[in-house]
Structures are given as structure tokens and as C-alpha cells.
Amino acid sequence: MENDTWYDVFIKILHRKYEKRAQLIQALTDLLCIEREAVYRRLRKDVLFSVHEIAEIASAWNISLDEIMGVKSKQISFHMRQMNYLDPSKEELTFLQNVIQAINFIKNLPDTEFMDICNKLPRQLLAGYECLNQFYLFKWQYEYGIEKEIIPFSEIIISEEKYQLTKEYYRAIKNVPNTSFIWDSKIFDYLINDIRYFCSIYLITDEEKELIKNDLYALLDYMLDVANKGYYPETRNKVNLYISQLNVNTNYSYTFSPEANICFVHVFEKYEIYTFDQEMAINFKTWMQLKKRTSVQISEVDERSRVEFFSKQRLLVDSL
Question: Of 47, 85, 132, 314, which has the maximum CB count within 10 A?
């Protein structure tokens, strides 16, 4: 039966979400509010998931039903998931946990590739630096928060659970077998200008500015080490770092693997629109790879350009 075919694919995707079957069972039990035995029956296909249940799972776990069922059209759907990064709901925390689990899963797929073209520091790196991460959350809140009152940097509070997930994400992202970054040549200029602005309107104190500077120095030292070695020192997974000679308009990224492909356009500072459409993911990969033509690789090769770039960034941080 045709329905059996797409349903089989749906079940396989559910199993990929969690490394262990017991974790999948518990996640579905919590999400659908049904008994564990009822989940077992559905996974064995003794009973099929209802239409409502499939829709609820697809929404919560970002599964494209159109692609599973082979629906083809001239239009490609992009999705956007809104997230309250300062006070995430239980559902949002579960989503973040699923992201980390997915990253940990692809570490076993040696052909998996991640690429990010960016004009602001990517969250994969920010996640490892508490004050820098807090600054980007603060900036997001200032620009797009719905609160009527302006919240200063000191009042941006990250919950302990969200903080721990951020640390887990920072560790997990280094498990991706192949990573490439293309940075706008002025990526640190933009950041320094932002920090100066918020200092000028007294939302960041001099003491807080120094804490952010310390994180910036630590990040530059770490990325210089990565660029020298050509890999993350923690996992020895490959990292290529390029500097674009043309301006980068926004952050774009893709994850490409034998199991699944996804591409993102990052918007409104902390959100992204994304699609799992295979054709679009392949196009994204092609377009983003072409960006290397107007970029200079500074990881491993071209030591002079590498030293000049990082020295310049340290001088920018000095001037803050």
C-alpha cells in the first residue's frame, strides 16, 4: 500500500530522533500523553498513529510530512520556529534537547558536513562563552523583545536548565565530522560597534564591558588554535575557516549528510527559517560552496593572512 510506504518512512524518522528506543518511547509518551504500551503498539504498527498524533509529532519534532509522502510542487516550504531563549517553555526545552541529540547522532556519519556563512558570530561558537552569549541574548531582547521596558544587560537572566543545554550544545557541535566557516571580514567590527552603542546608552556598564572583552580575547585565542590546527582540539574533527572578501548579508548554513539534509537562513538575530527539501538543500550547498571563490582560507594554509587577521581582531577588542 502507498500509505504503508510513507508511514514506514515516518516510523524510521522517529527512531532516528533518539539513539535508544527507550528514550523514543518516553518522548512519545510525554508528547502524546498516552500509555507506553500504546506507543509500543503504534511503533510495531499494530495500531497506526492517528492523523492528529502524526501532526502533533511532526510539529513538535520538525518533521516535513510533505517530503515524507513525496508531495512535489513548484513551491518549497520554509518553516520558522519561534523560540523564547530567555524563558523557554517545556516544549521549547524539549526541542533544544532534540537538536543536541540529532547532532550527537550525526557524529557517527563521517560524510556529514556543516557550513556557516556569517556576518555575526555563529551560535556554535557563542555557546561556549557565557558573557558573549548573554550579550547576543540581550541584543535580541532589546531589538525584538515584546516587553515595554528596556532591560539592561545585567538583568538578562538565563535559567540554569537553559545554561546547561547551551553548554551541551557547545560540546555536541564539535562532534560534526566536517565544519566550514566563512566569516565576513568585518565580523568583529560589527560586534564592537554594537557593544559601543549599548555602552553609550548605559545599558552595559564598564565592568560588564570588560567581561565581554575577556570572552572575546578567549574566543580569538581558541579560534586561532583551531585555524592553526585545522580541527577542533577537543574532538579533532575537521574545521575550515575562510574570510570573505565581499560583504555577507546575513547568516546562512546547511547540514548535509547521507541521512538527512537541512538548510537555514538566520533571521531576527536568534531565529531561522529552514527547510528539509532535498533539492533546495543541494542548491544551498552549491551556492554556499561557490562563496569560497571570493574568500581566503586562513586555516592551516596562508599563515601570514591568518596571523594578520587575528592580530587585527585583537586590536579591535583592545580599542573597545
Answer: 132
Task: Record the cell numbers describing residue 180, joined without a space.
Answer: 566550514
191 and 136 Cβ atoms separated by less than 8 Å: no
> Mean per-residue pLDDT for 269-274?
68
pLDDT band of residue 223 (cuts 50, 70, 90) is very high
Q: At residue 134, does pLDDT exceed 50?
A: yes
d(CA 87, CA 240): 34
Is residue 267 very low, low, confident or very high in pLDDT (cuts 50, 70, 90)? low
DSSP string, the chain: -HHHHHHHHHHHHHHHH-SSHHHHHHHHHHHHT--HHHHHHHHHTSSPPPHHHHHHHHHHTT--HHHHTT---S----EE----SSS--HHHHHHHHHHHHHHHHHTT-TT-EEEEEESS--HHHHTT-HHHHHHHHHHHHHHH---SSPPPGGG----HHHHHHHHHHHHHGGG-SEEEEEEETTHHHHHHHHHHHHHHTTSS-HHHHHHHHHHHHHHHHHHHHHHHHTB-TTT--EEEEEEESS---S-EEEEE-SS-EEEEEEETTTEEEEE--HHHHHHHHHHHHHGGGGEEE-SSS-HHHHHHHHHHHHHHHHT-
| Cα atoms in the Cβ-side hemisphere of radius 13 Å centred on 44 | 8
d(CA 193, CA 19): 43
Q: What region does 13 belong to: left with phi over 0, alpha with psi -120 to 50, or beta?
A: alpha
Q: What are the domain boundaries of the chain? A: 2-68, 79-318
